[in-house]
Amino acid sequence: MHRQRPKDKDKLYALHAPEVDECIGKGKARQPYEFGVKVGLAITARQGLIVGARSFPGNPYDGDTLQEQLEQVECLTRIKPQTAIVDLGFRGREIDGTTILHRGKAKRLTRSQWRWVKRRQAIEPIIGHVKDDCGMRRCALKGQEGDAHHALLCAAGYNLRWLLRWIASFVLFLQHLISSALPENRAFAFRFAPVIA
Question: Is residue 167 one of the residues assigned to a domain?
Answer without folding.
Answer: no
